[in-house]
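Saturday, quiet lab. Running sequence design on the structure tokens for the scaffold JK sent over.
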């Protein structure tokens, strides 16, 4: 197990404030029921995704061994990041680092801020994370850059619920007072930060066969961890022995992820409830029957003909 944070007090990381983290204030919008956001390239974003950080993420000098984990929020990004870091490091966590320190979220002006010079000086393989749709990916057009992109998607009912619990009262969402039903409406209308879930997921799904794109699902990682890890290793060119699979499965399971000082995110007080349920199907505790039926109809229409489907339980 990692001991990265043991023996030293957690670093003091300031909670989100517009003045500290939004960089420019005059384009911040207050939407329905006080929902704070800004638009970047016409897509709804949190205010800590700033024009200059976004620009840096798009113009980074990409190396052929760079890896970028990409997702719509609440899809298992940090779980996958933990798995990936341990795949790279033979089952261990990178020495002396936490997950937040070892993964680079370039478009964000909070918690992960690293300058271009720092990023250029990082040893390979660099691991980025991003919540951008395909056309806004780290490193520019994924079809033109050598970066390997690992996209993880999760069934949208669980995403909407996880996002509601995580973000609806977060300071970067303003003083949102809409409540669950309104949140779900905003999710379906693409008004939540990072825009429309269907457009986002399908933008990457469309390019799933590109040689540098690997599309994964949270539910597959949950139901067939070993197979998914082997496929990920195959895509990235890592040997994945049975022993390594066992070690990574054990260390990145939900309970250990929450406890391990490498991955528990305890250095970020605002994320004390980050690891909430970690299951498939917690949407059933939140959706009413009517909401579920309505959403299923939206899902059916939006996903029809795409060849993409999700397990909802
Ligand atoms: S974020 O904030 O967008 O980066 O969130 P993200 O990491 O994408 O997703 C958070 C959800 O993933 C769950 N999670 C896990 N599930 C199963 N196993 C493991 N190890 C694991 N680690 C994180 C986390 O609990 C969030 O989902 P919910 O449904 O809220 O529990």
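Result came back. Writing it out in full:
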């Amino acid at each position: 197990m990692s001991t990265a944070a043991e023996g030293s007090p957690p670093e003091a990381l300031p909670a989100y404030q517009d003045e500290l983290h939004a960089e420019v204030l005059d384009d911040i919008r207050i939407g329905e029921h006080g929902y704070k956001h800004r638009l970047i390239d016409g897509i709804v974003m949190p205010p800590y995704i700033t024009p200059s950080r976004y620009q840096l993420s798009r113009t980074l000098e990409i190396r052929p061994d760079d890896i970028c984990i990409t997702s719509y929020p609440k899809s298992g990004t940090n779980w996958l990041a933990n798995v990936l870091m341990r795949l790279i490091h033979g089952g261990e966590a990178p020495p002396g680092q936490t997950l937040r320190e070892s993964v680079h979220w370039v478009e964000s002006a909070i918690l992960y801020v690293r300058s271009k010079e720092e990023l250029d000086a990082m040893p390979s393989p660099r691991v980025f994370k991003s919540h951008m749709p395909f056309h806004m990916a780290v490193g520019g057009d994924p079809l033109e850059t050598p970066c390997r992109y690992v996209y993880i998607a999760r069934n949208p009912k669980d995403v909407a619920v996880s996002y509601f619990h995580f973000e609806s009262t977060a300071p970067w969402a303003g003083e949102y007072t809409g409540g669950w039903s309104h949140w779900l409406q905003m999710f379906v209308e693409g008004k939540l930060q990072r825009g429309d879930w269907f457009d986002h997921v399908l933008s990457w799904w469309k390019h799933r066969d590109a040689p540098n794109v690997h599309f994964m699902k949270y539910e597959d990682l949950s139901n067939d961890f070993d197979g998914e890890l082997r496929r990920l290793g195959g895509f990235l060119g890592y040997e994945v022995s049975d022993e390594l699979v066992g070690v990574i499965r054990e260390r990145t399971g939900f309970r250990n992820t929450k406890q391990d000082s490498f991955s528990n995110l305890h250095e970020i007080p605002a994320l004390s409830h980050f690891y909430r349920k970690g299951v498939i199907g917690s949407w059933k505790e939140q959706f009413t029957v009517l909401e579920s039926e309505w959403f299923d109809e939206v899902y059916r229409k939006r996903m029809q003909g795409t060849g993409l489907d999700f397990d909802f339980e």
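Notes for JK: Residues 71, 73-79, 158, 162, 165, 252-254, 257, 275-278, 282 surround PPS (CB under 6 Å). The chain is about 35% helix and 10% strand. Ask whether to fix the surface positions before the next round.
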